[in-house]
């Protein structure tokens, strides 16, 4: 099981992927191994349509792997639960999860527009809120115990998520 887990959530086009990449850079610069898991609300294709593994799956394979001297990729023709994916992550990795809003791990919610604020009521496990510089979030809208960050405060967010992430008991 991974060493620590923290989620970055928000609606589409709020900056989740950009913040994730900036947090990965920050954590790696501190000597922390990072693994990532992303939820995609749409069908996705992880490889070129004419790649050998895609051809294998188009022929009926339900599981396909490709490996080289540099990396391995596995494609399964079935969904995976977040906990299952976390269990497959390296045991010494800090896992950053993008999406999976309804999961129970500690999370940061990104707020860019007024409509995004409903997530602050609907979601569980909110430990932090990141707002865009031009957005003013009322203090009484911040969930109890959650920290408020400006979305560009990557170092501050990185410090905070390291302290508040879910930790494996093993």
Automatic annotation (TrEMBL):
Gene3D superfamilies xrefs: P-loop containing nucleotide triphosphate hydrolases
Pfam families: MobB
Domain Molybdopterin-guanine dinucleotide biosynthesis protein B (MobB) per the UniProt entry, residue ranges: 5-131
Domain of life: Bacteria
InterPro entries: MGD_biosynthesis_adapter, MobB_dom, P-loop_NTPase
UniProt protein name: Molybdopterin-guanine dinucleotide biosynthesis protein MobB
Organism of origin: Paenibacillus glycanilyticus
């Amino acid at each position: 099981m991974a060493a620590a887990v923290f989620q970055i959530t928000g609606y589409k086009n709020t900056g989740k992927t950009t913040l994730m990449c900036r947090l990965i850079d920050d954590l790696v610069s501190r000597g922390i191994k990072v693994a990532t898991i992303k939820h995609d609300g749409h069908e996705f294709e992880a490889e070129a349509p004419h790649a050998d593994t895609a051809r294998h799956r188009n022929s009926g394979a339900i599981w396909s792997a490709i490996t080289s001297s540099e990396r391995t990729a596995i494609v399964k023709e079935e969904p995976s639960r977040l906990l299952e994916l976390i269990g497959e992550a390296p045991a010494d990795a800090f896992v950053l999860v993008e999406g999976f809003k309804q999961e129970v791990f500690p999370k940061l919610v990104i707020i860019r527009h007024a409509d995004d604020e409903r997530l602050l009521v609907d979601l569980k496990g909110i430990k932090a809120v990141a707002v865009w510089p031009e957005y003013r979030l009322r203090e009484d809208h911040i969930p109890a115990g959650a920290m408020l960050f400006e979305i560009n405060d990557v170092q501050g967010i990185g410090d905070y998520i390291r302290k508040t992430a879910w930790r494996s008991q093993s």
